[in-house]
Automatic annotation (TrEMBL):
<dbReference type="Pfam" id="PF22301">
    <property type="entry name" value="AUDH_beta_propeller"/>
</dbReference>
<dbReference type="InterPro" id="IPR054583">
    <property type="entry name" value="Beta-prop_AUDH"/>
</dbReference>
<dbReference type="Pfam" id="PF18637">
    <property type="entry name" value="AUDH_Cupin"/>
</dbReference>
<dbReference type="InterPro" id="IPR040887">
    <property type="entry name" value="AUDH_Cupin"/>
</dbReference>
<protein>
    <submittedName>
        <fullName>Uncharacterized protein</fullName>
    </submittedName>
</protein>
<feature type="domain" description="Aldos-2-ulose dehydratase/isomerase (AUDH) Cupin">
    <location>
        <begin position="431"/>
        <end position="731"/>
    </location>
</feature>
<feature type="domain" description="Aldos-2-ulose dehydratase beta-propeller">
    <location>
        <begin position="127"/>
        <end position="302"/>
    </location>
</feature>
<dbReference type="InterPro" id="IPR028994">
    <property type="entry name" value="Integrin_alpha_N"/>
</dbReference>
Length: 856
C-alpha cells in the first residue's frame, strides 16, 4: 500500500528539489506489553483521512486470549493528552485485520481473523475465523458486537475492497497454510461478499474461492487505474502476483518470482509487498521482502518510458539489501515492507519493519528507509528511522498536519521471536530542518505556539553531553533523561524539582550579573502558554569523562541522524585553536584556548528570524578569552558552562568606565566576577535602561562593558584542566531591570484583569468600536462602558503587556510614554518606534471597580 498526506490547500509547498528525509520522534503509546504482532492506523470515521486512531494487539497465549485494543489519538482528542485504550474484543490467536464501513452508519467497522492457532505448525483445523466488529460511533464504547463472516483454517491476511462488484463490501482473505506444517499445498484466495443485511445473525457471508496460491504472507489492495474494481497484490511462495477480476473471469500477472529456491530451504518467493507511487504513477516501482520472514529487501523497477500500472510490463528485480544468513529455521528478521512519501517529494520511499534477532543486531531491529536515487537502475540510499523492534508499520497523518508519521508494534510471538520489551510506539515527523551553511549548520524550527507536537533533534556529542534542540508546543510535557540540563532559547520551561518540591522556571535569561543552574532534577519539563525552544543537554558516555587534562579527550562527535542531508551528516566539528582563527589577528599565541563552530537556529518561516547563534569554547588553566565589548556586532550573549574544569572559571566585566579600562592589560581589581559552575548559565552582562531594554551605542550595537571568560588559575598540583562552555548569541531582548531603585511593594502591579481609566476624568480607556483591526485608536469612554484589559508580566523581565480582553489586541505606544501622546491598540505591536511592553505601577489614587482599575 502507498501512503500519502492529504493536500494542505493553496498554502502547501512541495520542494522542487529532493526533500531531506524528516526526523521522527519516538513516543510510546503503550509499553510493558506481553506480546505484539499487529498494528493498524484506524480511521474511526469512514470519511476520515487524517488523525487516525491505532489498533494494536498480539497473538495471545495458549491460556490467555488476546485483547484487541483501540488507542484514541490524543492529537485529535481534546479530552486527553495520552493514547487512551478501549478494549474492542478478546479473541483467541487473532492475526490480520482491516476495516470498512460494513454497517453503513458512516463509521469504520473492524474486520479481523482469529482462531489461527499457536503457530504455523499448530493450526487449529476448525479455526481461521473471519469476523467483523461493529462500530456504533461511540469512541468510548468497548467490547464491540462481533459477527461471523466465514472460516478457513490458517487464515492469515485479509483486505476489504470491491473486487467483483461495487455494490457491496467484499473481503479478500487468504490463509497461509491449509494445515499444520504444510508448506506446499496451495491455499485458497477467498472473496467474501456482504449480504443484504450484514447485521443479521444468520450464516456466514457468501464466498468464492477465486484461485489458489502458495504460502501467501501479504495481501495489499492495488486500486484500479480507471476508478474501477480493486485489484490485489499478493506476496508468497509464487513471488509477487497481481490478481484481479476482469468482466467475467479472474486473472493473474506475475511481477517476479522473488527469492529463488535454494537447497534445504522450504521458503522462497516473497514475504511482503507494496506498490510505490512515483508522481502520478501509483506503481512507479514495487518493493518486496524475500522470502517468508526473510532477510532480503528487493525492488522491481520498469523503464522510465513504460506505461503506468503493473500489468504487461517488464519488471526488473534489484536486491537492495541482504541482512545476512538466515537462522536454523531458515527465517530472518523482515516482517513487512510499506511504501510512503514521508519526505513530500512526490516519490515514495520504502519502509522495512525489522522484528529483531537473537543475538540482538542493530541492523536487524527497527525500521529502515530506502529512498530512490536512480530508479531504473535500482539505486537507493538507506536511512535508519527507528531502533526498536517493528513487527508491522502503520503509516498515517496522525497529527493532521499534512505530514506522514508512522507507528510500530514490537514483534513478540511466543515460541518464535520474542522482543525483550514489547511496545507500541508512534513516530511523528519532526519539523526541525538542518542545512549545511559553510562550516556551520543552520537549524530551522517552527514557532513553538504554531506546532502541536514536540520535536527533538540531537546534533552534537561533546564533553560528556549530548546536545539536542527541542521545540515544545504550549503547555506540553517532555520527558528528559536523568541528569539532564536545559538552556532556554525562547519561551518558558518549568519542572517540579524532585528534591525541593518547588516549581523551577527557566526563561531566556536569569537576572543580570547572577547565575542559575540549568540542571533538571525531574523526569520531565513543561512549556508554558507561549511554548518553548531550548537546548537539552543529556548525559553521554561516548565523549569522555570530565575533568579533561588534554584536548584529545574533548573530541566532538556529529550525531545528527543519518536521514538528514548527507552533507550535514558528513560534517565534522573540530576544536580549532583560537590563535589559528582568521579573526584572531595574531592574538592568543600559545594559549590553550579553542573554539568550535557553530550552529544557527532560525525560524522555519518566511521571516527567517534569528533565534540564536551557538558556538562552543574551551580554555585551559589560567587562560583569558580576551576582554572585548562587541562593538562590531550587535547581539546579547549568554554563556552556559558545561564543565568548569578549572573550578574558578567564569565571566569578568569592567566596573569602571570604558575609557578607564585597558583590555590589553586589565586590572582585575577593576572587574566584577561571576564564577559559572558546571551546568550553570550567567545572566545578562550588557547595559540596560531602567525598563530592562538593552542600551545601544550610536552604531546600534548593544552597549557592553569590557568583559571576558577567565579560566581559573593554576592549582597546587600544576595539572592542566579545561573549562568548556557554550556561547548563545541572541538578538537584543529585554531582561530584568538593573535599576537599584526598588519600588514600594504596595505599588507593584499584580497580573490580572483591569479596567484602565484616565486619572483625571475617570473615563474608561478602551478600543474604538471594540475593534481588533490593526491601528484601532484607544479612546476614553464614559464609565458605563467597561472594556477590560488583561495585564501580564513579560516573561523574564519587569515589564508588562496590556491585552484587550474582548479582542486580544495589545496596547502599543512610543517609548517612553509621555503625557499627551497618542496610543493605539494593535495586533502588530512591532510597528516602527512602537512598543507593547510597559514599565507600569498602580496609580496611588486609583479606586476599585468590578475589575481592578489602573491609570495610564
Amino acid at each position: 500500500m502507498s501512503y500519502h498526506a492529504s493536500s494542505l490547500g493553496c498554502c502547501a509547498h512541495v520542494a522542487s528539489s529532493p526533500a531531506s528525509i524528516p526526523s521522527f520522534l519516538k513516543q510510546q503509546v503503550e509499553g510493558g506489553r506481553t506480546d505484539g504482532y499487529w498494528i493498524e492506523a484506524f480511521p474511526f470515521r469512514a470519511a476520515q483521512n487524517s488523525g487516525q486512531n491505532l489498533i494494536g494487539y498480539g497473538l495471545g497465549f495458549q491460556d490467555t486470549p488476546s485483547k484487541i485494543e483501540m488507542f484514541i489519538n490524543p492529537f485529535t482528542n481534546e479530552k486527553s493528552s495520552n493514547w487512551e485504550s478501549r478494549q474492542l474484543a478478546v479473541l483467541d490467536f487473532p492475526v490480520a485485520m482491516n476495516f470498512a464501513d460494513i454497517s453503513g452508519n458512516g463509521f469504520n467497522d473492524v474486520i479481523i481473523s482469529d482462531k489461527y492457532g499457536p503457530s504455523m505448525n499448530d493450526i487449529w483445523p476448525n479455526g481461521g475465523r473471519v469476523s467483523w466488529l461493529e462500530n456504533t460511533g461511540d469512541p468510548d464504547a468497548e467490547n464491540w458486537t462481533r459477527r461471523t463472516i466465514g472460516f478457513s483454517p490458517g487464515m492469515h491476511r485479509l483486505k476489504a475492497g470491491h473486487f467483483t462488484t461495487k455494490d457491496r463490501i467484499q473481503i479478500c482473505a487468504v490463509p497461509i497454510v491449509v494445515k499444520s506444517s504444510d508448506l506446499t499445498t496451495p491455499t485458497p484466495v477467498i472473496i467474501f461478499t456482504a449480504p443484504d443485511d450484514p447485521k443479521s445473525t444468520g450464516d456466514s457471508w457468501p464466498s468464492e474461492v477465486v484461485m489458489k496460491k502458495h504460502l501467501v504472507h501479504e495481501v495489499v489492495i492495488f486500486p484500479s487505474l480507471d476508478g474501477g474494481l480493486d485489484r490485489v497484490l499478493l506476496a508468497g511462495g509464487d513471488g509477487v502476483d497481481l490478481i484481479w477480476f476482469d468482466n467475467s473471469a479472474w486473472k493473474s500477472f506475475n511481477v517476479g518470482k522473488g527469492h529463488p529456491q535454494t537447497s534445504g530451504n522450504p521458503y522462497w518467493g516473497a514475504g511482503s509487498v507494496a506498490a510505490a507511487r512515483v508522481h502520478d504513477d501509483i506503481a512507479g516501482y514495487i518493493a518486496s521482502s524475500e522470502a517468508f520472514h526473510g532477510n532480503t529487501v528487493s525492488v522491481y523497477t520498469k523503464s522510465t518510458h513504460t506505461s503506468k500500472g503493473i500489468v504487461d510490463i517488464k519488471w526488473t528485480r534489484h536486491v537492495l539489501e541482504d541482512f545476512g544468513p538466515l537462522n536454523d529455521q531458515h527465517t530472518g528478521s523482515i516482517h513487512e515492507v510499506v511504501c510512503a512519501d514521508i519526505d513530500g517529494d512526490g516519490i515514495d520511499e520504502v519502509l522495512v519493519a525489522m522484528m529483531g534477532s537473537d543475538p540482538p543486531s542493530f541492523d536487524k531491529t527497527g525500521v529502515w528507509c530506502y529512498k530512490p536515487v536512480d530508479l531504473e537502475n535500482g539505486t537507493f540510499s538507506r536511512f535508519k528511522l527507528s531502533n526498536v523492534s517493528a513487527g508491522r508499520i502503520a503509516v498515517a497523518d496522525y497529527l493532521s498536519n499534512g505530514r506522514l508519521d508512522f507507528a510500530t508494534i514490537s514483534y513478540s510471538v511466543p515460541g518464535y521471536f520474542e522482543s525483550p520489551n514489547p511496545a507500541i510506539n508512534i513516530f511523528p515527523s519532526t519539523s526541525i530542518i538542518a542545512e549545511k551553511l559553510n562550516d556551520e549548520v543552520c537549524f530551522r524550527v517552527p514557532r513553538a505556539p504554531s506546532t502541536r507536537f514536540a520535536s527533538e533533534l540531537e546534533f552534537l556529542d561533546v564533553s560528556a553531553r549530548k546536545l539536542a534542540i527541542v521545540v515544545l508546543p504550549p503547555n506540553t510535557a517532555h520527558k528528559v533523561p536523568a541528569g539532564s540540563a536545559v538552556k532556554v532559547m525562547a519561551g518558558t520551561v518549568t519542572w517540579l524539582d524532585g528534591k525541593s518540591g518547588k516549581i523551577e522556571k527557566r526563561v531566556l535569561a536569569t537576572r543580570p550579573f547572577t547565575h542559575v543552574s540549568m540542571s533538571v532534577n525531574a523526569d520531565e519539563v513543561r512549556s508554558q502558554d507561549e511554548g518553548a525552544i531550548f537546548m537539552l543537554l543529556k548525559d553521554s558516555k561516548t565523549s569522555g569523562t570530565p575533568p579533561y587534562s588534554t584536548m584529545d579527550a574533548l573530541v566532538a562527535h556529529n550525531i545528527i541522524p543519518l536521514h538528514y542531508p548527507e552533507d550535514v551528516c558528513a560534517m565534522r566539528f573540530p576544536w580549532v585553536k583560537v590563535e589559528d582563527r582568521p579573526w584572531a589577528n595574531g592574538r592568543f599565541k600559545g594559549l590553550e584556548f579553542y573554539n568550535l563552530v557553530g550552529f544557527h537556529v532560525r525560524y522555519a518561516d518566511d521571516s527567517d528570524d534569528v533565534i540564536a547563534h551557538v558556538q562552543l569554547w574551551t580554555a585551559g588553566v589560567g587562560v583569558s578569552a580576551g576582554f572585548h565589548n562587541h562593538v562590531e556586532k550587535s547581539f546579547c550573549e549568554i554563556h552556559a558552562c558545561i564543565v568548569n574544569g578549572t573550578a574558578k572559571g567564569g565571566m569578568r566585566w569592567a566596573i569602571v568606565p570604558d575609557d578607564k579600562f585597558n583590555p590589553d592589560d586589565p586590572k582585575l581589581d577593576d572587574t566584577g566576577l561571576i564564577i559559572v559552575p558546571d551546568l550553570h548559565e550567567h545572566g545578562p552582562l550588557w547595559r540596560t535602561g531602567r525598563d530592562g531594554f538593552p542600551l545601544l551605542r550610536k552604531n546600534d550595537t548593544v552597549d557592553y562593558p569590557w568583559h571576558a571568560w577567565l579560566a581559573g588559575d593554576k592549582s597546587a598540583s600544576g595539572k592542566q584542566s579545561y573549562d568548556v562552555w557554550i556561547a548563545f548569541e541572541f538578538p537584543s531582548f529585554a531582561t530584568h531591570s538593573v535599576s537599584h531603585i526598588k519600588p514600594h511593594t504596595s505599588n507593584l502591579l499584580k497580573q490580572g484583569r483591569y479596567i484602565l481609566s484616565e486619572p483625571f476624568s475617570q473615563m474608561i480607556v478602551g478600543l474604538l468600536n471594540c475593534s481588533a483591526t490593526d491601528g484601532t485608536p484607544v479612546v476614553a469612554f464614559s464609565p458605563s462602558q467597561n472594556q477590560t484589559w488583561d495585564v501580564s508580566n513579560v516573561t523574564g523581565t519587569d515589564l508588562y503587556q496590556l491585552t484587550h480582553a474582548q479582542t486580544g489586541s495589545l496596547l502599543a505606544a512610543r517609548w517612553p510614554p509621555v503625557d499627551g501622546q497618542h496610543i493605539m491598540g494593535t495586533h502588530s505591536p512591532a510597528n516602527m518606534s512602537l512598543t507593547s511592553s510597559w514599565a507600569i505601577t498602580v496609580h496611588r489614587d486609583a479606586c476599585v471597580l468590578p475589575a481592578q482599575r489602573i491609570s495610564v
